[in-house]
């Protein structure tokens, strides 16, 4: 699944939610989160984020790898 990372914090542009065809991006507190079970891996959100906050989870930079858990934890355990 795709993952939203720290550049989204306090920016919350929201264009990713418009781009997402399955509405699996949710607002919560200081950032938005992608539901890993609902994301269809289309990649459409990636290019619309003005701050490049979205990463494919298998290519996520080491400095942001904790955001895989941050996105998952927002929705609770499976
Ligand atoms: Fe939505 Fe596609 Fe982005 Fe997943 S990759 S969050 S399905 S736009
Ligand atoms: Fe955040 Fe970028 Fe979406 S700033 S709300 S991930 S468009």
Task: Explain what this protein looks like in three dimensions.
The chain has two helices and four strands. 18% of the residues lie in helices and 18% in strands. β2 (25-28) and β3 form a beta hairpin. It is α+β, with helices and mostly antiparallel strands and 78 residues long. The chain has helices at residues 15-19, 66-74, and strands at residues 2-4, 25-28, 31-34, 54-56. It is globular. A two-stranded antiparallel sheet has the order 1-4. The model has no long low-confidence stretch (mean pLDDT 96). The chain has a single domain, classed as Alpha-Beta Plaits. The structure holds iron/sulfur cluster and FE3-S4 cluster. The site of iron/sulfur cluster has 14 residues, from loops. Iron/sulfur cluster (SF4) is lined by residues 2, 19-20, 22, 24-25, 34, 39-45.
Strand content: 15-25%
Tell me the number of helical segments per DSSP (H or I, 4 or more residues long). 2
Rounded mean pLDDT score: 96
What structural class do you assign from the helix and strand content?
alpha+beta
The backbone outline, from C-alpha atoms, is globular
- How is the main sheet built? 2 strands, antiparallel
CATH topology (level 3) name: Alpha-Beta Plaits
From N to C, what is the helix and strand string?
Answer: EHEEEH
Indicate the CATH architecture. Answer: 2-Layer Sandwich
Q: Give the helix proportion (percent range).
A: 10-25%
Number of domains: 1
**For the largest beta sheet, what order do the strands appear in spatially?**
1-4
Indicate the low-confidence ranges by residue numbers. Answer: none
Distance between the termini: 14 Å
Tell me the name of the CATH class: Alpha Beta
């Amino acid at each position: 699944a795709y993952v939203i990372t720290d550049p989204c914090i306090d920016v919350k542009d929201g264009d990713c939610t418009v781009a997402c065809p399955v509405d699996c991006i949710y607002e919560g507190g200081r950032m938005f989160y992608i539901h890993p079970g609902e994301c269809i891996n289309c990649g459409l959100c990636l290019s619309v984020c003005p701050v490049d906050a979205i990463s494919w989870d298998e290519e996520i930079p080491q400095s942001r790898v904790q955001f895989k858990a941050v996105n998952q934890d927002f929705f609770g355990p499976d």
